[in-house]
Amino acid sequence: MQKSPRRYFARHRLALAIASLLSVPAVGYAVVADKPDADSYEVITVVAHRQARQQSEVTGTVTVIDENRMQRELALDIADLVRYEPGVDIDQGGSRFGHGGFTIRGIGGNRSVIVVDNIPLADGFSVGNFSDSGRGLAELGLVSRVEVLRGPASTLYGSKALGGVVSFALLDVDDVLQFSDFGGFVNVSGNSDRDRYRGTVATAWRQGDYGVLVAGAHQRSAEPNLAQTPSVQDQLDVEQNAMLIRFAKETDRTRLRFSIDTTEERRDSDILALLGQGRFALTTLMQGDDWREQQRFVVDQYFQDIAGIDRGNWRVWRQLVNTQQATYEERQAAPTPISIARNFELQQSTWGVGADLENDIQLLGYQQRIGYGFELVQTSVSDRRDGVQTNLNTGATTQVILGERFPLRDFPNSDITELGVYVHDEIALWQGGPTLSPGLRYEYYQLKSKVDALYAEAFPSAQVTDLTESHWLPKLGLMWPLAANVDGFMQYAEGFRAPPFSDVNIGLYMPMMNIVAIPNPDLKSERGRTMEAGLRWRGDSAQLEAVVFRNHYRDFIETRAALGFDPALGMLVFQSQNRERVRIEGAELRYRQALSDSFELSLAAEVTRGYEQGTDTAENRHLSSVAPARATIELVWLPSLMWESRLFMQSSRGQRELHDASGALLFSAPGYTTFDWVTQWFPNERWALSFGVFNLGDKTYWRHGGSRSRLANDPYVPLWAEPGRSFGAAAIFRF
To answer: Span of the secretion signal (predicted)?
Structure first.
């Protein structure tokens, strides 16, 4: 819906040109139409159809964030990336583990698909207080573009796309080469909110049909600088390194690439806030040393007019993820002083192959665009937890901690096979009239468990289960031009998620705490249905998009739900369970207005409101994953063609009173209003400088994603707050 007002962009052609230089698209990831001008600027999206479409053609809600927006908003991580996007939150892993993923319209975790260059990222896994793998999100310094598709998208993206899809596109040769056949850029940025800084260097060469890209990024950060510093705060040191190497061969009709990218992250933490609290009442020292490495090897090709296929792409990949997390604890205040060393390892190995193809045809008198494709993914997952307890007086050691005997596995080694085949059509019912978009996907899911001695010894009576699921997933969309500048759209879509290995076969046995978690071989697949309707209007100086949606989910899986006390075992039993029903509904509004068409001053206002309500109708409980209403207002000032300045106001309603499944009161974040100011200056075509002040009022407030599902009396409440006033800056030089 981003067709820009004619007079506004006609008077700012140079600013548009510079912005375009900072975000030159790769083939297959175009940002504007092939031959854009000031009167026909149109954002192109890929995520909604797996092929390029004008955003105004999409029967759904898509947010496109290009490289220039990331630069001017000083986005160093994914929390910065969506800070001004109501309806999209970040799953937080606490002060130690960092970000876990995206929550879209109240659905997050492994229920939202994240793809990088069309390759799905590994799922996250966590158990207890000391193990959380996260999802290994992309380093934004190597990202050229991000798209967010809201709502169930299983027809095109398969199982796990119940909440939506977030698609990252990494840098390509064309993103870097802007002046000659050899070039690059250096980008240095930082923010005082967490003492963060990042450096990115990229360079590329082109010789005839061949191109090479080499890029690297390094980022450091620490614990947040809060507006009201608590008496005790965890200490954190985070270091992340990322590298991307690409070889490409391009012809008039094809682009073949071989890519290697790696991301390594280390997080060293000194956990102070928990000391002396609850189960850690006797703990005097706790430190974490967490390391995660992700490696991907990808061969892909984009092509057009080959073998009777108008356009398409195929890809083959291998992805290796290794997570290691070590925790060292001392209990000097215990009657017998001890130390405990814990270690957690998780390996995820994936290979896959997929293709997305498209043809324009005339069939039964209708002009149609048929998309079709498949994806086959094979994943092997294994984990191992180990631990040693040492008597600090005598030096004696034991591998039995709180009744758990180490080493052990939390689930049997698992092989997961996922196969999806889909077809999607766009049928123009008549010239200039409505377009009907039916789609259908067949999804197959298989889980095979391999019990070894390590798992069998820890859980000898566990009922290990293999699982096979298959579903047909339909979708139907309609785009209807109501007037010259007005389009209405609606869609119905279905989604499903097979029970994850960690819910089907999870094991946990802690007799000293009277806790046991047992597998559930009877878990059903989660199913979702969504109805969405919207209106888009484009005027000479304004744009409007309004959307309403309603999502229904059945058999929603609650991970490790408390079943109560079992007298026979004498323990509190936990088991993943299917809920009866979940409903999420809401409305979204986006509006843009050019307030002035003068050369000296231009103003633009953007008002976004996301409102979602979720109710667990089986137990009549509100869902803690659904954020309260939130709005963002952006005021833009362009005093010259080389300089722009933006003022953001974010306002959120307070969270309603919430309780967990046991009835315990959860923390409800109060409402807030904050202001940010960012400015960007383009001295010439090679330099871009950005500066920002965030949380201008130095306000203490909590975002929903960082504080949800936490108990109200948790001592960590002050530490979940967002940083106080901070200053950010960035400089990019292209050569």
So the answer is: 1-29
